[in-house]
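PROTOCOL LOG
Step 1. Enter all chains and additional molecules of the complex.
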Amino acid sequence: MLNQIGNYSLYIALVSSILIIIQSPILLNRNNINVSGRIFSLISIQSLMIIISFIALIITFIISDFSNETVYNNSHTSKPLFYKISGTWGNHEGSLLLWLLVLSIFLLIFTITSKNLSNKYRILTLFFQEIIILGFLLFILFTSNPFMSLFPIPNEGTGLNPILQDPALAIHPPILYLGYVGTSIIFSSSLAALISGSVNKTWAKHIKNWVLVSWIFLSIGILLGSIWAYYELGWGGFWFWDPVENVSLMPWFCLTALFHTILILEKREMFHSWVVILSITTFSLSMSGTFLVRSGILNSIHTFANDPSRGVFILCFLFILITLSIFIYFFYQNKIKNNFTKTYIVSKETAVLVNNLFMMFFLSVVLIGTIYPIFLEVVNNDKISVGPPFYHKLIVPFLIPFLIFMAIGPNFNWIKDKINKINLQQLLFFILSIIISFIFLKRVGISYLFSLPLFIASIFLFLITIKDFSVKKTNLSQKISHFGFSLFILSVLVNGVLAKEYSSNMKVGDERQFLNKTIKFESLKVNESKNYQSLEANFKISDKNNSINLKPEVRVYDQPQTITSEADIKSTLYSDNFLVFNILKNDGFYNVRYQIKPFMIWIWISIILISFGGILSIVKKNG
Amino acid sequence: MKIKILVVTIFYLIGSLNLSYAANSEKVDQISKNLRCLICQGQSVYDSQSDFALSMKILIQNKIDEGQNDEQIYDFLKSKYGEWIVYDPEINKNTVLLWVLPLILFVFGGILILRKVSIK
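Step 2. Run joint prediction.
Step 3. Record the structure below.
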């Protein structure tokens, strides 16, 4: 029953999509009509239908209706309700339906909030957005339908991968998708603005909110993924330069470049073409991300879906969209006003360009690092791995000038500034940073090639961003985001340099000394939970002044039968205590891995600050 | 008793985990972080608890004990398992574009900006 409801709603949505695409060129030539009328009702019907089908899928998961193949493959009656619901998008079919849901809701919001803009621009945006929606509808209905029926109806499902049964990962996909899909509106509207010749101040002002919203969701989505990786995957790191992680970082670089540039378009009517190119690229990267993850082309820990026929469909769809946009760009490029206002080298405009240059460089490192191995394998069957050392080697040397520039750049004036404004105060801060870094590294005893300049640059940026809170020139949201970024870099560095790790084999009752601490394996017990059994260890970590207890677990899930290792983490403002244990065959011995991770919590806080700056900027503008 | 049963179940599920962990030296950690665990999905040898990773760590420890340096160990592993095993691809005719392309793009972009802005 629910399967039919879901299916039919999707088909109705498909019909509305086709109707809108056919009608929009006709309406385009009648300038006096407002979009409201028929197209608006079609969009509303479409959104409603997609919402109904999504709710139908959620209900199927909640009541564990195993006549639905997706539910059968990804759920189980013994699962807690929360994970039954999150199971809806914890699989290939459901996650695509979520993509579609966000696509159509965003389009509805766009239609409602763009009423005072030109008719032509709005209809064109609808048109391009509907092409994307149509593509996704076809993809879902013909290769990944979440409403396939099973007969005879199985009694029990096969369950959701236990490592996905986690609160952070339950909300990670929806948040990330809000970011990804937000870029579709930027894409459609930039093409529309290009064709209708309205790439200008007004458009920049309008689309800026969408850029910010996508950027905020993407940032928080990435944050949630990292936090999950940190405590669930058990190695104590939060970023591994894994292809699936990279794929979310690429549109982030692009969006960051975009909203810096779009400010220039808004304030100074410059860089029109570049803004359009960035808009197109951002969405292409989001789509490619979906393709790379969903096609199973990547050899990666996160890839849970493997089906080449789907990959081919997305690849063709992606190819059509990108070709279409490139064609439109070159065809209508001459419509862009090209008033080359002179740009001086010391000015806010140049500062933004340099920001863009670095963003594009970081983007290209991540992009090439991610897809190069795939190409090489196709071309001459050589398999290479590109991992953390590659990214560190290419990114770190460029990070140093970038950080210094980020400290100086934001204080430049528009149009033309004086070079000698790089003043005594900044010089003083710089010298101070050198001294702090030198003393710090000397005490820690680190002497890698880049560590000193890297510390100098990041401490410099940190000091300047704090000082900037007292300067009136820039707005508060920018100050918070920039401060957040400097805090992020500094926390990551300090965390990397000061992290300590101890690993050993221990029996219950054993004691080990590590640094000035005593690690005691106190006890072991078995816990029974609804859908898993767990072996819970109790460790006491004590030093002269205080002691903490860490209780890591090894869990055995029933459905599907899987083992996960749950780290126990105690966070304080200064450092995290992280402990995982594993079972050894040697009777009674357990492998214990204890890590001290300084300033871990500040990495998360700083990303929240970065995003908060963006939120503040939206609220202030609309409030 | 309950503990014993659960431990046995876990063994049964993990399969043949018959190697014990040795407390590794820092050097082993450092090298194994740069190695891909070939039988895992996107994990380094350092992070993995699989049979392969464990025997790999022992192998590296043995090589260090024999007095080999980092380079010799990497070379040995590459000759045995191919380039695929190291996360840090060396520069050769296959990978030169991988390393150089981002740099070329940066220089190209920089030139573009310099041509756009006027110095005075």
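Step 4. Note key features.
Chain A has 17 helices and eleven strands.
Chain A touches chain B through 65 residues (CB under 8 Å).
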